[in-house]
Structures are given as C-alpha cells and as structure tokens.
Design brief:
Layout (H helix, E strand, L loop, with lengths): L11 E6 L2 H9 L4 E4 L4 H13 L3 E5 L9 H9 L4 E4 L2 H8 L6 E4 L8 H8 L5 E3 L6 H10 L5 E7 L2 E5 L3 H6 L17 E4 L5 E6 L5 E4 L4 E2 L4 H6 L4 E5 L5 H15 L5 H8 L20
Parallel strand pairs: 1-2, 1-13, 2-3, 3-4, 4-5, 5-6, 6-7, 7-13
Antiparallel strand pairs: 7-12, 8-11, 9-10, 10-11
Helix pairs in contact: 1-9, 9-10
Length: about 290
C-alpha cells in the first residue's frame, strides 16, 4: 500500500531537530510539523510522544547507511507510529514501502536525486516528496523543478552541510579505551565532540543510532534568496536542519524562515536575523552558479 501526503496550499517550513531544547523551541513556536533525528532510540520515543501531545505532526529520520541486519532499526522506528519517515537510504525505502500500512515517506537529500527523471522514478516507489540533492546549484535546481512533479520536491533552505559520514567513532577513539558501543562506555551520551580546522572553525561531530559519526560544517548555509523562486515553482516543503543550535538560536532561525515563507520579510532580512553569532555565520552555500572564467 502506498501512502502519499497531499501537498497543502501553503508552504511548510519543516525543522529537523536533534536535541530536546531544539524540539521544545519549535513546538513553542507552533510549528505544524517537525522531524526528529535522535542519537538513541529511547530518547527518540519520548520526543515523538512529547511532540504528538503538543499537536505537531512528527517525522523520524532513518540512518544514512543501512547495513545487513539493521532492518531492526527501521522496525523500531515503525513501532513509534510516526506521521512520516525521513528516508535516507534505499534499504529503508524498501523496508517502509513494503509495510502493509506505511507512514508517509519523504526522501532525504542522501538519496542523491539531482534531476527530474530520477525524481519521477523515486517518487513512484512510495515517496510523498524527495529532497533535492545538495550538490545542485541554483540553475540546476530550478531546471529540475521545471520538469519534476509539482509540489513533490522539497528543498533544504538552511543547514550545516554534512562534510563526511564515517563508521569510525571519534568519541570512542578519543574519550575511551573501547572500540565500539559494547566497550566504549558510550561517552557520546555525556560529551560533545567537534573538530577545529586550520582557520579555527569548529565542526560538530554527531553520532547516530548506528554509532556512526557525521561531521557537519561549522557554518550554516542558507538558500533564503532562492525561496521566492522555489515558491513560484510549487515547492511546498522547505526544510530547516539544525545541528547544535541552542533553544534561542532555534527559535530565531525558525521564526525568520517562517516569516520568509509567508512573504513578511525579505531573504536579506532572514540572513541578518539568523546570523546570531560568528560561528553561526550564514553563507549563500552551494546553491549558486559559479562564474566560469575564459
């Protein structure tokens, strides 16, 4: 059975939260829908319940890479009865699409959908929407939207781009004498690790439920200038991905993008409001066309 969300008349700014503080901030802001990407499953179950009690539609994110035998993670996510699942791997798509009564499925950027042909193909496999790949520039993205099913391509308009994803656990290596979750003592539950680069930027390292690490860019990237064009081309799902933003930063960022989606403020004002401090400096990001020199 294929379940597809019907696109609404108004664009939705959908935040992805990774902490309780972020979740509380977006719920207090009155968001209609939220996505959850939690490090551990017990905390995720509690977060899903809390968001549902506040009247929000709740989505849960799968792991980025599914290895053989890890279908049990997807099975646990299904038992939480979310309103939708943010599908990050082809294995997870196959698992959820095969359920008798699957939740709505939204594809993440990690499915690497970069053209309208791929978008149409994957949407026929049970996805309600698919998020455009992050490596598209502005012109490529708009070209895809011109031919993809209208209203069924989502775009991430604010995020810390994941620079790489690895099975090597920095937490276990640096903060314990163990090698995996059986022997490391799970320092990731008590500490936060980041990598400082040669120009003194601090890049967060985030652990997922499979004990894999994702390194996120220190600086958030914004596609605010694209939003008017996206809305005119039928994009209705605008995603804002948070990493380690505090509650106050989260509230500021979500408020700015929601106001942009309704036309209350300009893209330039969004960038001004969202840039709360230097480490959170917003750039135009990868969604731009570079000048080609002769």
């Amino acid at each position: 059975m294929r379940v597809v969300d019907k696109p609404g008349e108004r664009p939705q700014v959908v935040p992805l939260c990774r902490t309780d503080a972020q979740l509380d901030a977006v719920l207090d802001a009155g968001v209609a829908e939220v996505e959850l990407d939690w490090m551990e499953l017990v905390g995720l179950a509690k977060a899903v319940e809390r968001a549902k009690k506040r009247g929000a539609r709740v989505g849960v994110a799968t792991v980025r890479v599914q290895k053989p035998g890890e279908e049990r993670i997807d099975a646990h996510l299904a038992r939480l009865e979310p309103d939708h699942v943010l599908v990050r791997s082809w294995g997870s798509l196959a698992y959820f699409a095969a359920l008798d009564k699957p939740p709505a499925l939204h594809g993440d950027f990690s499915l690497n959908v970069a053209n309208s042909i791929t978008a149409a193909w994957v949407l026929e496999r049970g996805l309600a929407t698919v998020t455009a790949a992050h490596d598209l520039d502005r012109e490529q993205l708009l070209a895809m939207l011109a031919y993809a099913p209208r209203g069924r391509v989502a775009v991430t308009i604010h995020h810390h781009i994941p620079t790489f994803h690895t099975e090597h656990c920095v937490y276990a290596h640096l903060l314990s004498d163990g090698k995996d979750f059986r022997t490391c003592g799970r320092p990731c539950e008590k500490h936060e690790v980041a990598l400082r680069d040669r120009v003194d930027l601090v890049h967060p390292v985030v652990v997922d439920v499979g004990c894999r690490n994702t390194v996120f860019n220190a600086q958030a990237q914004s596609a605010a200038s694209l939003v008017p064009d996206l809305l005119s081309r039928g994009v209705q799902r605008l995603r804002v991905e948070l990493v380690r933003e505090s509650a106050s930063e989260t509230a500021r960022v979500i408020a700015a993008y929601r106001a942009l989606a309704t036309g209350e403020i300009t893209p330039a004002e969004v960038v001004r409001r969202a840039a709360t401090h230097e480490q959170f400096g917003v750039t135009r990001g990868t969604m731009r066309t570079l000048t080609v020199l002769p």
